[in-house]
Amino acid sequence: KAGVTQTPRYLIKTRGQQVTLSCSPISGHRSVSWYQQTPGQGLQFLFEYFSETQRNKGNFPGRFSGRQFSNSRSEMNVSTLELGDSALYLCASSLLASPDTQYFGPGTRLTVL
Amino acid sequence: AQTVTQSQPEMSVQEAETVTLSCTYDTSENNYYLFWYKQPPSRQMILVIRQEAYKQQNATENRFSVNFQKAAKSFSLKISDSQLGDTAMYFCAFLTDLQGAQKLVFGQGTRLTINP
Fold it and tell me: Using CA atoms, how far apart are residues B61 and A8, in angstroms rounded to an integer?
């Protein structure tokens, strides 16, 4: 069974632009979570989706948004990019609606210049 | 709010030795899950081991085992017969058992280096 896939793997953007990252979960998994990893703040939860509904959101500004499609694929969008948005963005999927093991994708490395 | 603390920023051992990574957490909940993930230089986050708080028996996965002390809120990872491929960042993580909550809370990580 294929693992979690994320595209693109690397992105370079400039301040003020917007970006969309994509995540395809493991087949059959319906929960998708997003995390931001930076050297200073570590791993921080962004949001979680299950059956196209956002169930949880972390403490991030409204510039960070996401959605989930009927096939469980998820996208996250960051508008008006800032230098501090440079990070590794990790997507994870899990099988159950209730708390369950999360399996991670390889991440998207975003650099904002 | 739940917090996870890893007090060892870096550790280094020789190949084939046993190493223990420490993790403590703070929560008022009774039911939850704890995980250890490893993140090698490739940056892929890989599940190492999972422990359910309601289980008294410590989880084991081949060379990896945990010492789960619920009352002390401690969750250490022991790696036996360490191998060069174990070199990675190791993250301890907490997951609440609240329905609908899939939010992992991570510690700051321990950078483990296995030397030949």
Answer: 33
